[in-house]
Amino acid sequence: MTAAILERPALEVADVIQECGDAFLDRYGGLLSVTQRQALRDLAACRTAALGGHVEHCLDCGHERIAYNSCRNRHCPKCQALTRARWLQQQAEHLLPVEYHHVVLTLPAAVADLALANPAVLYDLLMRSAAATLRAVAANPQRLGAVVGVLMVLHTWGQNLHHHPHVHCVVTGGGLSCDPAGKLDTTPRWVACRRGFFLPVRVLGRVFRSQFLNGLNRLFAEGQLLLPGRLHALAKPDARAAWWKTLYAQDWVVYSKRPFGGPEQVLKYLARYTHRVAISNSRLESLDDGRVTFRLKDYAEGGRTKRLTLDAEEFLRRFVQHVLPRGFVKVRHYGLLANGQRHARLSVCRRLLLVATVAAVVPGADPVPVAPAQPRCCPECGGTRLVHRELTPAARAAGPADSS
């Protein structure tokens, strides 16, 4: 009888946690949230005996293959594929036969520090402000005069794992006609963007700055923000007024990328971006003497691939700062795609665009006969007489994230 465990990458984030997690917690444990500790526990145990699994046994040759259960934590590099596939299938039903635009809105570094201390409220404000910006500028009759559809994804990292909060938006290249307040016309018509152009980024940047800072001012007035460490100076009105002045004086970065050609390209993009975590296991190269080396793209040099080596404790510190608060929704829909009225509004869009069914929107969406799935076979002999035996979770010793 032979036995095998399903293959895994040579190096994973889980390996760094298992080998260096204790040292990391000794240094930073007091600063971690419950959710961050849980993420460390989950990632370390993912697809190990600690979570149980099953043994696949071949009745023909006796070969056994062990598959351990996944942790299903949304920050785990190994647990996104199935969730992403199901989500993409749902999004395909919402796509229209129009040009789509990719818009990125980024918080300035001075606000990013405050967001790291108050992730739940400020990431929420970032997403709502970005959505309000896109809707307001698009509704302006001097710009487009329409309600557009927006799918927005929050990312909080850069390639080097530093904190870099920004949102990626996939926006319809047009929308339903509306008044300046964004209320749909009684008999709406489809208003298309100029081909290859969405909205002026300088205008978007100014409106985004105003939307976010107005919301931030309300949070300060309501006392909802934590101001630890050097941020405590912002509790003083004079210091905050000076800080405010610098924020209004700078341009806020809004980047409009080259538009997508159609629904197929949008789906490919969403497959890459929506369920991404701070770093994938495929980017990790080595863990030697407590130091982690990984690949990154330097966009300041045209996307050139480089390598960065960090102490494992610093690597984990950077990684856990991208663990989102429990229950935080990082993928959101606005405008035509807002959950409450999406079906009705998209039906109007399709009628105006002369599209009768979703099948005409997404190539290959027509109901077609699906070939039956091929039965699993033994990797050794090709036999299909396979039986499964459950493996109960192994009692595991307290891991690095279990210590108090």
Question: If you had to describe this structure to a student in words, what would you say it looks like?
Answer:
About 4% of the residues have low confidence. The chain is an alpha+beta fold and 404 residues long. A hairpin with a 2-residue loop joins strand 9 and strand 10. It has two domains: 106 residues, no CATH class; 224 residues, no CATH class. It contains ten helices and 13 strands. The chain starts with a strand and ends in a 13-residue tail after the last strand. The strands form three sheets. Strands 4, 5, 6, 7, 8 and 12 form a six-stranded antiparallel beta sheet that branches. The protein is globular, with a radius of gyration of 25 Å. Helix 1 packs across helix 9 and helix 5 crosses helix 6.
Helix coverage percent: 25-40%
Inertia-based shape:
globular
Q: Which H/E pattern describes the elements?
A: EHHEEHEHHEEEHHEHEEEHEHE
Give me the number of helical elements.
10
The number of distinct β-strands equals 13
Beta-strand percent range: 15-25%
Query: End-to-end span in angstroms?
Result: 43 Å
- Radius of gyration, CA atoms, in whole angstroms: 25 Å
Mean pLDDT: 88
- Detail the poorly predicted runs: 356-371
Major sheet summary line: 6 strands, antiparallel
Structural class: alpha+beta
User: How many domains comprise the coordinates?
Assistant: 2
